[in-house]
Amino acid sequence: MEVAETETSLSQIHQSGEDNKRKTESRGERDDDGNMSGSQFESAPSTSATPSSKTRLEDSPDALGVIKEAVVVLTRLPDYKISALRPPTPPQFYSEDESLSSSDSDMQCEPEGENSSLDLYDVSEPAPVIVSSAFSHSSSETTKIRPNLPEEEVNVDMIVLAKRGPMRWQRGKIVDIITKEDGRLKYKVSFEEKGRSLVSGHHIAFDTTPRLEQLYVGARVVVKCQDNNSLFRPGVLAELPSRKNRLRFLVFQDDHMPVYVGLPSLHLVCRPLENVLDDVANARHSSFMSQYLRDWPYPHLTHYITGQSLNAELNGVMQRCEVQVVDSSLIQVVFQENQHREWIHRGSIRLEHMARFLELKALQEYESDSD
User: Fold this and answer.
1) Which domains does the chain have, with CATH numbers?
2) How far apart are CA 258 and CA 253, in angstroms?
């Protein structure tokens, strides 16, 4: 008897559920036809189809099952993805404060003032973006001051690198130290490849590898030639290792040629002049380096991409060339006329865009000082 009664109760419950379900479906059909809302919750709107009544929740408390409704979830894209989908901004001069957490980020901001870069160039060929990159990550880089460390001794029989020509230094041995009447010291160097020379302290460099704490932006150095291990070239240290330059040192040689090197290729000048640029014979390059060091740690750089054409100076004449490689602060270009290939700094005065930008900047500074 108890089993029969139980089966009868289950049958009644099931029948009641089926009746309620048919009522609900009938009401749902009326809702769709009559545009009336008879449910407690409605599905999210969709542009593809009207939601079926079967996707609505049952409002009957006796319903045995609930059919889940489909919901469209909208997710807000990050700002950098939204920016990437926007049309590009016309090229102009920008100021860039790059985050040290990203070595290649280019955060561009509108320039202040009424002057536009398009005033300088033919509108048929838009000027590239010019940015000011933040390279420093410590106070020592920002100050550009020589560290207050004791001078290393220079003695007879010491192996050094000494000047033999404007852009030619070689390894030799100090054979004598001579004191002049005015108190200046001169060093007589006997070179490994024959010959002797009497030079000043700012024309000899230590043959040993410098310590990191001795190096700073603006230091007077000589670097090993990449194609001849017995020759060295003088220059000025322009970048310390960072994530931006893949942990390398950037050196501007005295002929304006930039080069990235590792620590073993660097050699500190023994007794540099108080103003190291006084030892740079090329007046144009000396002026450029003076501006570069004033702007540090925000040197101005043009922003080029691989395959882009531009005008750059070669043998004193502006010539057409194409960007082959972009490497941190440098670009490798090939000139169309003779296929000559070389590396140029992205802030170099040899680049037509940068030269004109620096002229405008100097004019603005002059007018500002006059006011």
Assistant:
1) 2-55 (no CATH), 79-134+298-370 (2.30.30.140), 141-295 (2.30.30.140)
2) 6
Residue 355's closest CA among 214, 256, 241, 230?
256
Q: How many angstroms separate the Cα of 85 from the Cα of each of 76, 94, 179, 340?
A: 14, 20, 70, 38
Check the CA dihedral 87-88-89-90 and report its sign: negative
What pTM, to 2 d.p., does this model score?
0.65
**Long-range CB pairs of 9-18, under 8 A, 24+ apart, other chains included:** 13/62, 14/64, 16/62, 17/62, 17/63, 17/64
Residue 66 CB neighbour total at 10 angstroms: 9
For 186, list phi and psi in degrees, rounded to 5.
Answer: -120, 145
Contact present, 30 and 38 (Cβ < 8 Å): yes
Alpha-carbon 178 to chain mean position? 48
pLDDT digits (tens, 9 = 90+) for 294-331: 999 899 999 999 999 999 999 999 999 999 999 999 99
194's torsion region: left (phi>0), alpha (psi -120 to 50) or beta? left
> 109: buried, middle or exposed (CB in 10 Å: 19+, 13-18, 0-12)?
exposed
Report how far residue 7's alpha carbon sits from residue 265's, in angstroms, rounded to the nearest whole number: 94
Computed on alpha carbons and rounded to an integer, the radius of gyration of the chain in Å comes to 36
At 117 the pLDDT is: 37
**Ranges under pLDDT 50 in the chain:** 1-10, 13-14, 21, 23-58, 60-65, 80-124, 136-141
Residue 70 confidence (pLDDT): 59
pLDDT of res. 3: 42
- Give burial (CB, 10 Å; 0-12/13-18/19+) of 257: middle
**How many CA atoms within 13 Å lie on the side-chain side of 279?**
25
Q: Which helix (H) or strand (E) holds 189?
A: strand 185-191
- The distance of Cα 5 from the centroid of its chain, to the nearest Å, equals 82
Q: Is there a contact between 324 and 334 (Cβ–Cβ < 8 Å)? A: yes
Pairing of strands 258-261, 266-268: unpaired
Measured in whole angstroms, how far is the alpha carbon of residue 267 from the centre of its chain?
26
